[in-house]
Amino acid sequence: MRLNERHLMQLAAVLDAGGVSEGAAMLGLTQPAVSRSLSMLEARVGEPLFVKGRRPLQATPLAAQLAAQGRVIIAASRQASDAVQGFVKGTRGLVRLGGVPFFMDAIISGMIGEFQRREPEIVIQQSYMNLPEVIAALEGDQLDLGIVAMGEMSSGPGFEFTEILPGRNVVACRRGHPLMRKRPIEAADLAACPWVAPLPGSPLMSDLQMILMSIGMSDLNIRYSGGSLMSVVNVLAETDALAVLPFSVVFALRDPGHVAVLPYQIPQPNRSLGIMRKAGGPRLPASDRFAGHVIAAFDSLRHAIKRHESAVIWGQS
């Protein structure tokens, strides 16, 4: 026997409200319409729904069971309505995010935490990717947003790129590194130190090659490679190794104080960090909401990063 779900919902509302008129008002319906529905349900099941002569209305054992199912339907309907409203407003949903590893770990992960504290109904699904992987994932509808480094070359007409921070690299080392006391620091000093290699495929790898060319070297003494940001920081803190890192990453690590910036001018990449999205087509409100959060956070952060850079690298106030 198939029952009309709306009839079950109306039965539950009438019993919970204590009367047909009250139940109809709860559901935004008229009293005659609800009375008809209850009569139809009673005829369908072939059993009375209410104990005769009782006021307020008292359910029969069968009606009590049917009302319990009606309450489940009402709750599911309300949850569905909330889900639709949340999706449209961008306060509920899934955001699939991919980005360059060190930058994601040092800065974006904290912004994700801040965002989810305000928007607890939005799920962030993060992947580590460099630019080619991000482009492929966006094209394949496997990502909503990418956090990548973009140079002068455009990614193509199918994408939008919003800059959030200019690219700026530094040579990083531990705070007590011997070169921190040497002036001036020369190219041979850098060549004599062990180095930590960037992740394969990272833009930092090409930046390291530019540093090699600038100091007239064809190779460096790579002593560690393939590690996460935390492992790179730990290696730097315990050795005299050097590493090329984005200054924004070093800025984010300033409070623990394990990593310092070597005051040595290195070639700078002609690129910026930013948010990449697929151009055209529908955009998910939740992903737009998160992108707006990141953009706003960097609007206030970029000035603090610039002041810190001047102070710690070149000793300016």
Automatic annotation (TrEMBL):
Cellular-component GO terms for this entry: cytosol
Using the record for this protein, list the coiled-coil segments as residue ranges, or answer none.
none
- Sorted alphabetically, which Pfam families does this protein's record hold? HTH_1, LysR_substrate
- Keyword line: DNA-binding, Transcription, Transcription regulation
Can you tell me where the transmembrane regions are? Answer: none
The superkingdom of the source organism is Bacteria
Keyword DNA-binding applies: yes
* Domain (HTH lysR-type): residue spans on this chain: 3-60
Key word Transcription present: yes
GO molecular function, a single term: DNA binding
Q: Which family does it belong to?
A: Belongs to the LysR transcriptional regulatory family.
Kindly provide the name given to this protein in its UniProt entry.
HTH-type transcriptional regulator GbpR
Protein source organism:
Paracoccus haematequi
Its taxonomic path starts at: Bacteria, Pseudomonadati, Pseudomonadota, Alphaproteobacteria, Rhodobacterales
Gene name, per UniProt, is gbpR_1
